[in-house]
Design brief:
The chain is α/β, with parallel strands linked by helices. It has helices at residues 20-34, 51-66, 79-86; strands at 7-10, 38-42, 70-74, 92-93. The chain has three helices and four strands, in the order E-H-E-H-E-H-E. InterPro entries: MlaB-like_STAS, STAS_dom_sf.
Length: 117
Amino acid sequence: MDARTPAVLVLPGPVTRDAVPGLCDDVRALMELGGTGVVVCDVGGLGPPGLGIVDLLARLELAARRAGGRIRLRDPDPALPALLDLLGLRFQVEGQAEEGEPALGVEEAVETRDPAV
C-alpha cells in the first residue's frame, strides 16, 4: 500500500456489540499506518441496514476522527445512505462526488454562442 491508497477494512456481517471496540482499534491502527487520512470501510457484507450498523459506523467515524482522519464507505446497501441521512449523519461513499465537487466524468463547457448569465 502506498501513501495515496487508503487502507481498507472489510466489515463482515453481522457485527456483534462485543466486536465494535476491536474494529475501532483496527481503524485507529490503519489510520496510523496508511498516512492518507482515510480508511475505506467495505460494508457490503453487513446486510440490511439498521440502528446497530448506524451505531457501528458512528463509532468507527469517531475513532477515525480522533486519529485525525475519516472513514469512507464502500459498497453500502442502497438504503444505508438514506438511513444515515435521515439520522443526520454524513459519510463519504466511495464513487460519489464530495460536496461542492462536480460528479466524476462531468466537465463544464461553454458554448461560444451562449449568452452570458
